[in-house]
Amino acid sequence: LLPDVPVHAETASFRFAYVGDSANTAYLGAKQGLDEANLQGRFMNQNYILDVINADKSLTTDYSGYIAVIAAVDSETFQKLSDLLPDKPVFNVLLDDDDLRTACRPNTLHIAPSRQMKLDAIAQWHKIHPDEQVVAQTWHPDYVKYAARDLNKRFVKNYSVKMDDPAWAGWAAVKMSSDTIARQKITDSAKLLSYLKTSLVFDGQMGIDMNFRSTGQLRQPLLLVADGKIAGEAPVRGVADNLDSLGNTECDK
Question: Containing H/E element for 69?
Fold first, then answer.
């Protein structure tokens, strides 16, 4: 009899396309997400790859081998890229244009908060703190709750810069995708897109379940920052109690 020989399953590879300037911190965030995905993937025979595509080649590249696209480009390029890839998740990690949300393109997933979300967060804050000037942000390098401290530490250790909004968005795009691929055993873009749009539950190291609106916007809390320090969070307790109090929730007719 032949001795038992362990059978190793073939490793499945998944490619992400990062479209835009690799000097943007969104790229570093995506790389951080990729590192974490591959750390997990080693135990599941999964390998994740991130390719950079310059914006000037974004509309002439063959994306057939990519599971998802992370776009850090201008609004016009983003819309054309979305039109080009109707069955593939196209993540917006930079743009805050409200009209990109209300257009409700079926394949766009906006990790970056919209302009209206940020305005609503500030308006809520001013109902209780009318004289305090704040800005609304997705992320902050001093955020420490819900394992955010650990994410910030990992990012600084790897890249020697602090995690900011685009970096968190790039990380979140890869993280929610790779987690979904691993848990749901998804292997194609269309199924990944469908799951992300309809069934996602994503913590994002922020201690709250986040998912996508019909507009493609990620429902997410925002941090209110005064003089570079975290002053509070929105929805602002005592003013609003749900994530849909931030930003537009309806599609254009």
Answer: strand 66-72
